[in-house]
């Protein structure tokens, strides 16, 4: 029988430490929507999404009430559109994005992911059409998220795609210049992207997935921080044990919500993603965890080690709490969505180079980093190439979500609103990589990919 | 369906009576009650069986929340599973 102490502990986590389920994401395959006529394809897609996700938001809200735990986001991911729309006879995919946006609004989800292409080894005709449509698609829609996978440990890095994405990011920034280039906050460039990620903006429903599936992303930086405060001044063994125990409890809640959602909607449960996702709320920050661990600010020497400890022990604690773990599963270190990270940047403690080092030991990459609007396209490509190389060589997912804020310079603040938060514009190394990026072609697969 | 009711707030006359009267009216059976008072703060937990309740679980949640606002304490009803999955392997 549950004791009063245990009941109080759970409710204290919810009330005071921002414990929540970050997202229930329904993955939907659009492969059977294929049609050569774009209007028919759009209609098929709209009908399928609105039919399957009709009760998603209501079910999430019912579970919130039943368990007394906030479920912050209800979202949808779909088959990468470059694949689903492969047979469509049209040069532009913008109307597809607009249809996804309408479907998302109809069922009440705040984001729909999957305006995506997988080009780690080369482009299909459809991939080229999709990528060319990204800037306009993100400028004209509100809820559509886009991602492009440009590299993998198995096949190397498509440097033509890396070069092109520098330009696409810049165009997206230009087209949404009136909103501090917020279009770029919905665009992720991946190396080793995963097929079952429930978190935006990089979610899509991979082709190896079932027809429809429920994935859940947990949260809990606030809970980990509070637990570590109670273990202050302890050695590393106690520190790690504390993170593990906390991660276990947080993940159990995600598992429960995932199973219940799956049961009520009659849709199979896919995975729980064990990521510590911060929000702009005070007390829900990864940077604050570093401070409790003993660093003056995020970015101080020791930060990479602290992050490695945090990430590893979240996984160790979480794996046993869920029957299927997947997605990205690691601590997120977005700058704009974490007030502690923002402060660290403003104080000069955290630089782009340190963030890059941190991405070697955690998911996911340079996430929600604002840079000056006049940054050269080749420089953006160079940053993407560096991140992709880290992912490729270390067999992990890395990503780049950079926002070149048009009209703003280092130190100014870009406002993206809501969960996306705000971010100070960070300085970028100004030395050129133009000739390197201009080479074209692809970087061959690394030696350790040959495992057969 | 088993639920757990937690009540948290400044101690005063009639908290338990208020909650119990409501539960009886809705045909919800109380299986266990424990409570503590720390520095005038009232902390109570009830395990209840709502299988034969007069209304849906979500409805009971809302009513109890409302009752809490009237009495001036926080009353939460949650499905037992959130606690058992978190604290029991």
Automatic annotation (TrEMBL), chain A:
SUPFAM superfamilies: PFL-like glycyl radical enzymes. It holds the Pfam family DUF711. InterPro entries: UPF0210. It comes from the Bacteria. NCBIfam families: PRK05313.1. Belongs to the UPF0210 family. Homodimer. This is UPF0210 protein JOC58_001152. It comes from Paenibacillus hunanensis. The lineage of its organism: Bacteria, Bacillati, Bacillota, Bacilli, Bacillales.
TrEMBL record, chain B:
Residues 4-78 form the ACT domain. SUPFAM superfamilies: ACT-like (SSF55021). CDD domains: ACT_1ZPV (cd04872). InterPro entries: ACT-like_dom_sf, ACT_dom, UPF0237/GcvR_regulator, UPF0237_ACT. Belongs to the UPF0237 family. NCBIfam families: PRK00194.1 (NF001220). This is UPF0237 protein JOC58_001151. It comes from Paenibacillus hunanensis. The lineage of its organism: Bacteria, Bacillati, Bacillota, Bacilli, Bacillales.
